[in-house]
């Protein structure tokens, strides 16, 4: 087991190094850039050359990359070109917001998706099943930004159930402990802040949850249908076991294996979905930071760090998924 | 009163947009306490469906079960699903063909045995596991303490079937239905499992319904044999009578097609011609008629009735094999 973890972590390092090189080259080949953004279109060539030199962008790309990597290994990602703040600081401010949003979305997707998928399979061909299938098709097809603006319009403009944007009502102060506002409120006993944060969280979380929810419902349904045909479920029935024992111990435990894999793969969908969702609801997370850093003049240092972070999150989550497999399925353990 | 009295049991599969298919057609047979009864026939003759119908394990939709399954006088088909659930595994148990797929791959063997005791005998986990170890020991699994925490893929095929037998007999049921319990096992293991089953039913007084296509299994185990063809019982005899004087051409053909060590060299193995696909529906005549060597005109005029024979059995045939031919 330990050897597997070590091997996977080494793979992770290689992946990240390769990815960092790709991003580095790719970003610098995009049209536009920080110099244009900082100086504007009408700057003289001399001033441009001066700033390009000051930022070090006149050097060969490999040299730039080497310097970048040199600093990265010491944990220094440089400063944001846009604001001048250290990149690590900028990101650590935004990161918890995105994690909070993504976790809430995943809780909705799994908490709703697994039972729905199970019920659809159990009542295969009935109206609940048909309704679920139609619903998931819609959920997968509908673009996030469209759904986001639709929900926002209906639930904040027409019926005022939820706040339209942000993470907290303006004027309400909370103590920042972890950066997860709902959790912070609970930890510091500022329950009004916690409730307010949760209230702000619901619509964006639902928006972000749609695609993973639809995928999880489908995978769960298909997987439960497979397991229902297994001989060991018939054996469990022949033993006269209670429904809930058969459901929990014999059906779901086996059926959830593919679902766990899906959860890992959906992390990618969540990260990309977060960019759109955060834009729609003005959620101050990584997604907003990405869009701002691109439109605000190609903030190379920030963008590089974010993309690496996203890749790191994706790979680590999938590593955890693989490891959790060993705990769920004893057949994996022996290998 | 018989322990199990199956009367006119029929199972019709009916899927939307398809013609109904009668898998089991008015099958009747009885099992006395402690007796071993065989249900014999080739694939598709309805033997497994019969057993699933008795257990109440057929899918909820897509089939219609009629007739009566009297277990100690109670019609199991009329029980509420929860009452049937209380009896399954406690009064009637079943073991299946493929021991690997019949055990849950992600649950330790010990729990899979113990959960029956927890469900039906009200044991707590600790007590149930202790009894499970004794059960595994009783079915001849070596080092039972270690097996409790092992998973099905870690033990051999023979041991898996032994574990399933331990599960089935955990609550000392009065009836055990074994659906081809040795088919998926090596020949050497088959004999061990059959010996074990015989020993256990003798010790506990459990009645056994043995479902098989293997006449060798029948010969070693069953008191009475029901031969099924096309969903109907075509011949019922006590074991010795059947092997000495099989009268139905189908049974006769089955017995003749068993290879024998003492047959003359170079003699071709006897086979029943055609396959189940050649069957005609029972309403039009005898389902076996297209494959039968003894076919007469009456066979195509309607289903022959099941009639008692001089030897105390039952036979459904217009032109049975004469005894001289049957003795080999």
TrEMBL record, chain A:
The chain crosses the membrane at residues 9-27, 101-119, 131-151, 197-217, 251-276, 302-328. Keywords: Cell membrane, Membrane, Transmembrane, Transmembrane helix, Transport. It comes from the Bacteria. It is a multi-pass membrane protein. One of its GO terms (cellular component) is plasma membrane. Gene3D superfamilies: MetI-like. Its main location: membrane. It is found in: Cell membrane. CDD domains: TM_PBP2 (cd06261). Belongs to the binding-protein-dependent transport system permease family. This is Peptide ABC transporter permease. It comes from Micromonospora arborensis.
Automatic annotation (TrEMBL), chain B:
Keywords: ATP-binding, Cell membrane, Membrane, Nucleotide-binding, Transport. NCBIfam families: oligo_HPY (TIGR01727). GO terms for molecular function: ATP binding; ATP hydrolysis activity. Transmembrane segments: none annotated. This is Dipeptide/oligopeptide/nickel ABC transporter ATP-binding protein. It comes from Micromonospora arborensis. GO terms for cellular component: plasma membrane. InterPro entries: AAA+_ATPase, ABC_Ni/Peptide_Import, ABC_transporter-like_ATP-bd, ABC_transporter-like_CS, Oligopep_ABC_C, P-loop_NTPase. Signal peptide: none annotated. The keyword Acetylation does not apply. The keyword ATP-binding applies. One of its GO terms (biological process) is peptide transport. Residues 6-255 form the ABC transporter domain. It is found in: Cell membrane. Belongs to the ABC transporter superfamily.
């Amino acid at each position: 087991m330990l050897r597997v973890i070590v091997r996977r972590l080494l793979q992770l390092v290689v992946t990240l190094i390769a990815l960092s090189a790709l991003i580095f080259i790719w970003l610098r080949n995009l049209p536009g850039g920080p110099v244009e953004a900082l100086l504007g279109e009408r700057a003289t060539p001399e001033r441009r050359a001066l700033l390009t030199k000051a930022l070090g962008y006149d050097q060969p790309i490999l040299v730039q990359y080497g310097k970048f990597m040199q600093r990265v290994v010491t944990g220094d990602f440089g400063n944001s070109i846009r604001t001048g703040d250290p990149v690590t600081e900028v990101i650590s401010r935004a990161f918890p917001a995105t994690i909070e949003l993504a976790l809430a979305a995943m809780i909705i997707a799994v908490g709703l998706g697994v039972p729905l998928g199970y019920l659809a399979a159990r009542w295969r061909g009935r109206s609940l099943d048909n309704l679920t299938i139609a619903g998931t098709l819609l959920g997968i097809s509908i673009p996030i930004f469209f759904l986001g603006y639709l929900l926002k319009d209906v639930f904040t403009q027409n019926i005022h159930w939820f706040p339209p944007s942000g993470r907290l009502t303006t004027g309400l102060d909370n103590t920042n402990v972890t950066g997860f506002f709902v959790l912070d409120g609970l930890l510091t006993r500022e329950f009004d802040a916690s409730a307010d944060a949760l209230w702000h969280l619901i619509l964006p979380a639902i928006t972000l949850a749609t695609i993973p929810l639809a995928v999880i419902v489908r995978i769960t349904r298909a997987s439960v249908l497979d397991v229902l045909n297994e001989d060991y479920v018939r054996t469990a029935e022949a033993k006269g076991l209670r429904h809930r024992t058969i459901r929990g111990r014999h059906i779901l435990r086996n059926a959830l294996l593919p679902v766990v894999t899906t959860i890992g793969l959906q992390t990618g969908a969540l990260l990309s979905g977060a960019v759109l969702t955060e834009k729609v609801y003005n959620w101050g997370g990584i997604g907003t930071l990405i869009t701002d850093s691109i439109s605000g003049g190609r903030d190379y240092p920030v963008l590089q760090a974010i993309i690496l972070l996203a890749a790191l999150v994706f790979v680590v989550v999938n590593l955890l998924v693989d490891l959790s497999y060993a705990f769920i399925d004893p057949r994996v353990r022996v290998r | 009163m018989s322990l199990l009295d199956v009367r006119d049991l029929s199972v019709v599969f009916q899927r939307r947009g398809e013609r109904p298919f009668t898998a089991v057609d008015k099958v009747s047979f009885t099992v006395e306490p402690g007796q071993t009864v065989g249900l014999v026939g080739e694939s598709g003759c309805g033997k497994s469906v019969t057993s699933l119908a008795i257990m109440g394990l057929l899918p909820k939709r897509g089939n219609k079960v009629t007739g009566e399954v009297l277990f100690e006088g109670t019609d199991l088909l009329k029980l509420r699903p929860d009452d049937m659930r209380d009896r399954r595994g406690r009064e009637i148990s079943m073991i299946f063909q493929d021991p690997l797929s019949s055990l849950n791959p992600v649950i330790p063997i010990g729990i899979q045995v113990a959960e029956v005791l927890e469900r039906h005998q009200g044991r707590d986990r600790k007590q149930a596991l202790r009894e499970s170890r004794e059960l595994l020991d009783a079915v001849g699994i070596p080092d039972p303490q270690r097996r409790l925490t092992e998973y099905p893929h870690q033990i051999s095929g023979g041991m898996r079937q032994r574990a399933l037998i331990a599960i089935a007999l955990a609550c000392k049921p009065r009836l055990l239905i074994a659906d081809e319990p040795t088919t998926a096992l090596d020949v050497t293991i088959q004999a061990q499992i059959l010996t074990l089953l015989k020993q256990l039913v003798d010790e506990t007084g459990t009645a056994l319904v043995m479902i098989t296509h293997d006449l060798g299994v029948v010969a070693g185990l069953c008191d009475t044999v029901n031969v099924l063809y096309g969903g109907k019982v075509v011949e019922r005899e006590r074991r010795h009578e059947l092997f000495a004087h099989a009268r139905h051409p189908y049974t006769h053909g089955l017995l003749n097609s068993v290879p024998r060590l003492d047959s003359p060299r170079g003699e071709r193995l006897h086979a029943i011609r055609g396959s189940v696909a050649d069957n005609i529906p029972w309403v039009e005549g005898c389902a076996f008629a297209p494959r039968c060597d003894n076919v007469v005109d009456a066979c195509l005029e309607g289903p022959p009735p099941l009639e008692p024979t001089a030897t105390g059995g039952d036979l459904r045939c217009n032109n049975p094999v004469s005894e001289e031919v049957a003795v080999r």
